[in-house]
Write a structure and sequence with these properties.
Layout (H helix, E strand, L loop, with lengths): L2 H19 L8 H11 L6 H13 L3 H22 L9 E2 L2 E2 L1 H5 L1 H25 L4 H15 L4 H10 L7 H26 L4 H28 L2 H4 L5 H4 L5 H5 L1 H19 L7 H12 L3
Antiparallel strand pairs: 1-2
Helix pairs in contact: 1-3, 1-4, 2-6, 3-4, 3-9, 4-6, 4-7, 4-9, 7-9, 8-9, 9-10, 10-14, 10-15, 14-15
Cofactor: Mg(2+)
Keywords: Isoprene biosynthesis, Magnesium, Metal-binding, Transferase
Organism: Crassaminicella indica
Length: 296
């Protein structure tokens, strides 16, 4: 399998679907549509929706049933980035090599653009459910996965503890809580939701969940590492911001070498969880390897 080609095919499908779903009509609130689209189409990797499509492929589901939910998870992820970049949060000027949303549209519109993307994500999923009642329970359960992963017991929980931990020394337990909720939750949710939508067996869902938990944490630790050793041109953002903002990270708590070893350990665990499924696991295994060794 050519991983880059497969990633591009899935990303193109997501891109086309986002273009179709996102409003762009000339109406009094056109400015908010522009702000939403600015951040959505600012060059993201589409990792989370790709993971959902890959889970669908793994189980043998219908991509058309999954696409609205995949686009919804990308909207939720993008809303979180817009809000993360705000002066009250991480106060970043650039995202993916472009000025952050509030630098282009102002703080007020950036807040509303994030709110709009979050709300519209659920509009999109509800519309998909109401349009086709087939496999209704699966669709509701998938939406529940996404809602919980992005809410007060998921991403927001991690963001709260992260904010409250700034300028403080924290232990590994609290750091794991932050990483597992702020980042890993939105890696696990699309994989589980895609599997549920596609009618996964109990065994398939359990294996994919273990896989997802390991790459979710590994992805964030690699992010911590890249904030120290990464190339700003490849990353599209300033490196060293975690140190500058006195944020606790895996390298700051455990050291750089130990962090690299932890990423390798998580990769091995992710592979072990699904390798017994044979050729069906190939995409996920290659993707896991790519994610834990990525340079951007």
């Amino acid at each position: 399998m050519d991983l880059k080609l497969e990633l591009q095919k899935k990303a193109d499908l997501i891109e086309d679907s986002l273009e179709k779903y996102l409003p762009k009509e000339n109406s009094p609130q056109k400015h908010i549509f522009d702000a939403m689209r600015y951040s959505i189409f600012a060059g993201g990797k589409r990792l989370r929706p790709i993971l959902m499509l890959a889970a669908c492929d793994f189980v043998g589901g219908n991509i058309d049933d999954v696409l609205p939910f995949a686009c919804a998870i990308e909207m939720i992820h993008t809303y979180s980035l817009i809000h993360d970049d705000l002066p009250a949060m991480d106060n970043d000027d650039y995202r993916r090599g472009k000025p952050t949303n509030h630098k282009v549209y102002g703080e007020g519109i950036a807040i509303l653009a994030g709110d709009a993307l979050l709300n519209y994500a659920f509009e999109l999923m509800i519309r998909a459910i109401s349009k086709n009642h087939k496999n209704l329970e699966r669709k509701v359960l998938a939406m529940k996965e996404i809602a919980e992963a992005s809410g007060i017991y998921g991403m927001i929980a991690g963001q709260v503890v992260d904010l409250l931990s700034e300028n403080k020394k924290i232990d590994g337990t609290k750091l794991d809580f932050i990483h597992n909720h702020k980042t890993a939750a939105l890696i696990i949710a699309p994989i589980r939701a895609g599997a549920i939508l596609s009618g996964a067996s109990k065994e398939e869902l359990e294996a994919l969940t273990v896989f997802a938990k390991n790459i979710g944490l590994g992805f964030q630790i690699r992010d911590d590492i890249l904030d120290i050793i990464g190339d700003e041109k490849k990353l599209g953002k300033k490196v060293g911001s975690d140190t500058e903002n006195q944020k606790s990270t895996y390298p700051s708590v455990y050291g750089l070498d130990a962090s690299k070893k932890k990423v390798d350990e998580l990769f091995n665990k992710s592979v072990k969880a699904i390798e017994h499924f044979g050729s069906r696991s190939e995409f996920f295994i290659q993707l896991s390897n790519y994610l834990v060794k990525r340079e951007y």
